[in-house]
Design a protein that fits this description.
This protein is of the alpha/beta class. It is globular, with a radius of gyration of 17 Å. The two termini are 13 Å apart. It is built from nine helices and eight strands. The longest helix has 17 residues, at 169-185. It has one domain: 3-Layer(aba) Sandwich (Rossmann fold), CATH 3.40.50.300. A hairpin with a 2-residue loop joins strand 4 (75-80) and strand 5. The protein has helices spanning 16-27, 34-47, 55-63, 92-102, 105-119, 131-135, 149-162, 169-185, 207-219, and strands at 5-9, 30-33, 67-72, 75-80, 83-84, 124-128, 141-146, 198-201. A five-stranded parallel sheet has the order 2-6-1-7-8, with helices on both faces. Helix content is 50%, strand content 17%. Bound molecules: 2'-deoxycytidine-5'-monophosphate.
Length: 221
């Protein structure tokens, strides 16, 4: 029997990556972080100083770039043309420029095709912005993970400062606002709850609480 495919979407700082990773781990499923794929391509475009407004060139870059996700215990390693870029794709420079890559139609077409292939075997938890709406519209279960803006700012601030960055809460608030704007308002593949997705508000829940809730819904399949 084919194992289920789970789609998880939500805004930055909602806790969806942590939840998706833990859910995949508990089920023994493959975890696919599609944001990491957009980030890896952004890193390459920045390195070769590609014109970030030239969508055709970005599309060609997407088609000729090899991005691999590899499960390494509880973490996910990201390879860009064979090079481990797991840490580098989380840099502020990549985060600030990923919107150019994510809004380019030819890039999204290429990414969506790659992601569908990764998901088609079953036994996957795929996480992103357009998974339930565009990439895997027939997923067995879809979740939309959200939290209040203030809580998302607080979580992001804690996470970044835990990683050695020294950003004020106000700076994080501004960054998150900009990211939300580009995620929600993209012409193609914007962040949107699929009609058949189950909304989970994590504002007052612990990560473990969310994981348990998501798992119980999946197990009732
Ligand atoms: O999940 P993340 O924050 O690492 O994703 C980085 C960016 O990639 C996000 O701001 C928008 C883009 N993205 C996207 O456009 N579509 C996806 N399925 C996943 C991420």
């Amino acid at each position: 029997m084919r194992r289920p495919v789970i789609a998880i979407d939500g805004p930055a700082g909602s806790g969806k990556s942590t939840v998706a990773k833990l859910v995949a781990q508990r089920l023994g499923f493959l975890y696919i972080d599609t944001g990491a794929m957009y980030r890896a391509l952004t890193l390459k475009a920045l390195r070769i100083k590609e014109d970030l407004n030239d969508e055709a060139k970005l599309g060609a870059l997407a088609r000729t770039t090899e991005i691999k996700l590899e499960q390494a215990g509880s973490s996910l390693k990201v390879y860009l043309d064979g090079e481990d870029v797991t840490s580098e794709i989380r840099s502020p420079e990549v985060t600030n420029n990923v919107k150019y890559i994510a809004r380019a139609k030819p890039v999204r077409e290429c990414m969506v095709a790659k992601q569908r292939k990764l998901g088609e075997e079953g036994g996957t938890v795929m996480e992103g912005r357009d998974i339930g709406t565009v990439v895997l519209p027939d997923a067995d279960k879809k979740f939309y993970i959200d939290a209040s803006f203030d809580i998302r700012v607080g979580r992001r601030h804690k996470e970044l400062n835990g990683n050695g960055a020294s950003l004020t809460e106000e700076e994080v608030r501004k960054d998150l606002k900009t990211r939300d704007e580009s995620d929600f308002n993209r012409a193609i593949g914007p962040l949107k709850k699929a009609d058949d997705a189950i909304a989970v508000d994590t504002t007052d829940l612990t990560i473990e609480g969310v994981v348990d809730k998501v798992l119980s819904i999946i197990k009732a399949l």
